[in-house]
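With this grant's support, the team has encoded backbone shapes as discrete tokens. A representative record is reproduced below.
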Amino acid sequence: MHIAIFNQHHHNPDCPATCRHYTFLEYLAKRHKVSLITSSAWKQLRITDRYKWAPEGVEVYEQEVPYSNKMGVRRRLVSYGGFAAYSLAKGLSIPKPDVVWGVSTPLTTPWMAARVAKMRGVPWVFEVQDLWPSFPIEMGAVKREWLKRRLFRLEKSLYQSASHIITLSPDMEDYVVGLGIAREKVTTILNGTDLDMADAATPEKVAALRRQYQLEGKQVVLYAGTFGRANDIPTIMQAAEAMANEQDIVFVLAGGGYYDDELRKLSLRLPNLVLMPPQPRPDVFTLFKLADLALITFNDLPVLASNSPAKLYDSLACGVPVLVTNPGWTKTFVEQHDCGWYCPAGQHKLLAQTIKEILSDDDKRQQAGQRGQSIARQLFDRQQLAAQVEQILLQVAGKV
């Protein structure tokens, strides 16, 4: 089977990001012909050089197009439009695939995947990474009502034209079905994590990292990921400031993004705030195993309650319990499996109080971490999730 995947934001484990599709493509390329149509935007963010840019056997068609999380709306639109034009042309010129796989975000990528699939007379699968256009609309990036209506019509038309839809969370699936799409046409395949990388994070590596940042004898509250406008970073900053006198508790924030400058300034004032640079994928797991508690924070917006944050899976795979601020499926999940806690977004005093309560009971916290690690082994293994994706693609292509 020949699979053509359209994914503007391809990256590899040398980058400071989750590598869902790298793992999936590595799995699929051992069994099928895989063509990847992507951009080079993430190459500049590579921290190490341990991995090939794409897995062995994947044919890469790549456009040189800039992209950054710090870009404003106008520059992002230019980036999205440039890649859309490239992906359409390339999708029509490569050898004919058996199935097209379009990955959002942004919505322009699956839109072009759908057009290529229609023009070449092949079925296509729509993987919904985030709910677009709901996300940019709720974040205030799209203000004109006529444009909102047009984007929502485009979104629904893509769901209708796709042969199958993959969502990353149960709440995303419910959203799609709520638009009138048949439930049997939608499959939730969680973001998942790389258990082999988690296992490779040894106690020796953790101890070395602890010494490097002088964290011996400290309880570590970790936020690892994007310092973005959607991630409720100001609440973490305010909670850290409120807990500045708690000498045995340290907030460690690893990543980068919109709040870089504010965090740097705050870290100069607070003895309990440590900033680390973004980490390549394998090193993320050493960082999580350093932590006593991981924060999974987002703003209080309905669209964000449906997302599928990689840090949730990585943390639980490392045996570290989580504190989530989404009132959606992540809250239900951690409470159902008793592997974490919930605190509403935007309430820094309550966040600080909840953190102190969690860290005051080592037995309860460690048991929650063990339960999380157990459920991660059952549900989050990306090798198993890749096999599920393969079955969907085979069925859609009529190969089974």
Observations:
- DSSP finds 16 helices and 13 strands in the chain.
